[in-house]
Amino acid sequence: MNTAISVRGLVKTFGRTRALDELDLTVTSGEVHGFLGPNGSGKSTTIRVLLGLLRADAGSAELLGGDPWREATELHRRLAYVPGDVTLWPNLTGGEVIDLLGRLRGGLNRQRRQDLLERFELDPRKKGRAYSKGNRQKVGLIAALASDVELLILDEPTSGLDPLMEEVFQQCIQDERRSGRTVLLSSHILSEVEALCDRVTIIRKGRAVESGTLNELRHLTRTSIQAELSSPPNGLSTMPGVHDIEIDGTKIKLEVDSVKLDPVLKQLVQSGVVSLTSQPPTLEELFLRHYEDDLAVQNAEGAAS
Amino acid sequence: MTSLTGTGGLVRLVVRRDRVLLPIWTLLFGLIPISFVASIRDLYPTAADQAKYASTSGTNPTFLALYGQLWDNGIGGIVVQRAGFVPVMLGLVSALTVIRHTRTEEEAGRRELVGATVVGRHAALAAALIVTIAANLVIGALLALGMTGQDLPAAGSAAFGLQLAMAGIVFAAIAGVAAQLTEGSGAARGLALGTLGVLFVVRLAADVGGKDSGLSWLAWLSPLGWGNRLRPYGGEQWWVLALFAVLILALVYASVALSARRDVGAGFLPPRLGPATAARGLSTPLGLAWRLHRAALLGWTVGLGALGVVYGSVAEGVKTMVEDNPDLEKYFTRIGGQEGLIDAFLASSLSILGVIASGYAIQAALRMRTEETSGRAEPVLGTATSRIGWVASHLAFSLLGPTVALLASGLAVGLAHGINSGDVGGQLPRVLGATLVQLPAVWLLTGIALALFGLLPRLTAVAWAALALFFLLGQFGAVLQLSQSVMDVSPFTHIPKLPGGELQVAPLAWLLGLTTILVVAGLYGFRRRDLEST
């Protein structure tokens, strides 16, 4: 298996702000890789470094086997990029922009262009200034998806799309995966990433905090359990891996680290289980856990100052 | 008036955003004419000297064309005439300020953000007009006080202050209307500045032949002409102020009426559908640049061409004026006779056309910065387009665009003057040659803009400041008796005074060399720096 993107210890500062803080990111050829993080965590900065639009201060980045800064022009023939906020020239039509960006990349597939225009229900004859946010985004997406390239770099590409178009987008990415293209999909929409991505990297404050397949990451999450027992529970609150426990007579609510699920269940069974519901871990929780840490830190800083 | 709710808050927003620019131009326009008084006293100390000025420079067609009539032979009158171009500059700045705080805000979508809060629909327009009008009144007051403080008559000083303030306010109101008509701020700026240009040309045509010329009634068609007819220090015609008041009120009423009839974000002309696919030419960075620059190229070429027709048509008339004026004739015989006078007029006209073309050069070069900060450069540079290739596509228009526009202008001057003087074959080549000579100075401003874009992208506005400085040096340097080393800062100082003067190649070569260095530095800087985005 080849590596499409390999980033090691990437650092990028803007003045005093450290936007990327020794970031690591690996995207394998042929996979759809989710790049998750809250606003301002450094997703777009990483992508701009990978596109050679920004120059890294330290660390290494390799894109399709080349140096993204020095070999930008040659590498860009083999990839297509959609920014999170597509701005169009007010006096060019959507169709003209799709063709222009495709040709600047080295050509685009007419048939796919036509299919995509129909699937996304976009009128290509409108001038750039007449499009809504969602329609501008479609112009960028069609220009990228209609190009015959190895790698798609999509930076929050669905912002502004309605749920129907979001569905069309997901189908398109599934098609891309089947035809073997590599996709780096930056997003903060968790359902989208869960539906599309083979592997996920979670970034926070310019640093990768988690990376792996969805199954691997689920091991890092917690399962929430509600149970009614035949006798009051015993010793659960001191067990490792148990969090947020609430006991009300024989009723119990708790969260348990997915890796500690087995001993906790055994303990529950000892007290006699009358009823039990459990909720599987979602990516959302994983994300929120990191996000809540941020909020907690911010609140603490806010309180201190 | 709920449609004005929130105006006070928006006034503070406008003042906050312009907290550097606003005081600078208010002080600049208020103080420059005051500073003329000492220099004029120095240059023309006695009444005889002042009368001499009145019969020579005061009736010199070049001065009349640029500054307007001289109504009083004293210090006050001379200062008013020499500051005759200040109303045009003030109009320019006022118009740009209003559009910047109305249509530009709306185009960027910030108007929507503000409009969703407790703000009436006319509040943004009202706030922009209030701040600009207030700034102009401050300039007028500053000027009136400053001139009175220099022992000049109070009535004349008040009229002088009002002349400038009214010019600024009229063009602020014109910009308020233009901002309602178009969807893009570029088009609104074009409309307002185009109007300014036309009204200037009307005043120029009225004044160039002197007070008694058959065309002097034209002055009543241009507010710039009215300002001159207010006659500060020369028997003030106060009733002219009523003309200003009526026009300003009508324009403000029109802009409010237009603003009440349209949607936020929309203009009056509905957008049309365009082609669904790109033409073959739109396949390269240069093809894209052509689409982005062609409207400006056309506008500038037509505008400079029209101005060329005006300058060219009046050049021959310069001779007859001199025949009526023995003092002037004597003066110009000294510097080369009647032919010398026409040549001097042509040379100074072409120099002004060169300065105007430099504005186009800067505008075209800084289009790159607009593309960058608006996020439109990013997807293009995300394709197989190299940074150098992208810059080169815009640079082509920044260098060749002003060349085409200036040549059209030179052609117009040469043809109009040639036809008038019955010598097209003789005049056209020498006027065209003299036009070409301006290009090294024009291109230097392209170089300055590109170097700033590559090395100090946040300071690209300095290119405009440089052009303003060069223009002010050319206009006021002589009056202020600045030393040659200060005058030498401007590239236009080094351009040979053609036709009629001597063609010196060395300064042109220096300018071209300097331009090359600036362009290379800009390219080097841009290749190494981060692309900025919103």
UniProtKB/TrEMBL annotation, chain A:
Determine if Cytoplasm is one of this entry's keywords.
Answer: no
User: Where does the signal sequence lie?
Assistant: none
The terms under GO molecular function for this entry are: ATP binding; ATP hydrolysis activity
What are its GO biological-process terms?
response to antibiotic
Q: Which GO terms describe its cellular component?
A: plasma membrane
Instruction: Give compartment(s).
Output: Cell membrane
Which superkingdom does the taxonomy of this entry point to? Answer: Bacteria
Please report the stretch or stretches of sequence annotated as the ABC transporter domain.
5-230
Against SMART domains, the record matches this protein to: AAA
The UniProt keywords, alphabetically, are: Antibiotic resistance, ATP-binding, Nucleotide-binding, Transport
Question: Which membrane topology describes this protein?
Answer: Peripheral membrane protein
- Family that this chain belongs to: Belongs to the ABC transporter superfamily.
What's the protein here called? ABC transporter ATP-binding protein
Q: Which organism is it from?
A: Actinomadura rudentiformis
UniProtKB/TrEMBL annotation, chain B:
What are the entry keywords? Membrane, Transmembrane, Transmembrane helix
Task: Mark the transmembrane ranges.
Answer: 20-40, 83-102, 123-146, 158-179, 186-206, 238-258, 295-314, 344-366, 395-419, 431-455, 462-483, 503-526
Q: Does the keyword Methyltransferase apply?
A: no
From the Swiss-Prot or TrEMBL record, give the protein name.
ABC transporter permease
Protein source organism: Actinomadura rudentiformis
